[in-house]
Amino acid sequence: MSVYEFSAKTLMGEEKALADYKGNVLIIVNTASKCGFTPQFKELQELYDKYKDEGLEILGFPCNQFMNQDPGTDEDIQEFCQLNFGVSFQMFSKIDVNGKDAHPLYAYLASQKSGMLSKKIKWNFTKFLVDRQGEVIDRYAPQTSPAKMEDDIKKALQS
C-alpha cells in the first residue's frame, strides 16, 4: 500500500487521486488558517517554488480539529492562503485527521510513522515526507520549520 491508493476533494470541489502525483516527492501537511504555525505556509511555498521543477509537490489539508483554528469554508481557506501567503501548491477540502471521521489518507499516514508518543496527529502543521514511490519517509512535528526539512527533501528528490 502507498499514498497513491487514496484520493481527496480539492478546495475547488474536484476529487483528486493521489496517484496523479506518482513519481513526485510529496510533503503532506494538515494546515489551519488561525494557528500559531500558520506562518509555515510561507516556508512551504518557498520550498515548493524552489523544488517543484525537480518533482516536489506539497499537498495541504485544512483541519479544524485543533481549537477551531480553521473554521472557514473551503472558499475562505483558499482566499486566505492565496492572499496572505501566495500559496500555489495543491490545497484540499477540510478534513479530520484523527478519530472515527479521520480521512483514510491520514489514518494511513499516522499508521506509517508515529509521532513522539503516539500515532495520533497532535496539532496543525504535522508534516509527512513521502518518496517518489509513495512511501512515507518521515514525519515532522508541527513546531519543525519546513525549512529544516530541506536536506531530507533534497535527498528524496535525488533518489
Automatic annotation (TrEMBL):
Protein name as catalogued: Glutathione peroxidase
Active site, per annotation: 35
GO BP field: cellular response to oxidative stress
Keywords, alphabetical: Oxidoreductase, Peroxidase
Origin organism lineage: Bacteria, Bacillati, Bacillota, Bacilli, Bacillales
Highest taxon, organism lineage: Bacteria
Pfam families per the UniProt record, alphabetical: GSHPx
Molecular function via GO: peroxidase activity
Domain Thioredoxin residue range list: 1-159
InterPro entries: Glutathione_peroxidase (IPR000889), GPX_AS (IPR029759), GPX_CS (IPR029760), Thioredoxin-like_sf (IPR036249), Thioredoxin_domain (IPR013766)
Assigned protein family: Belongs to the glutathione peroxidase family.
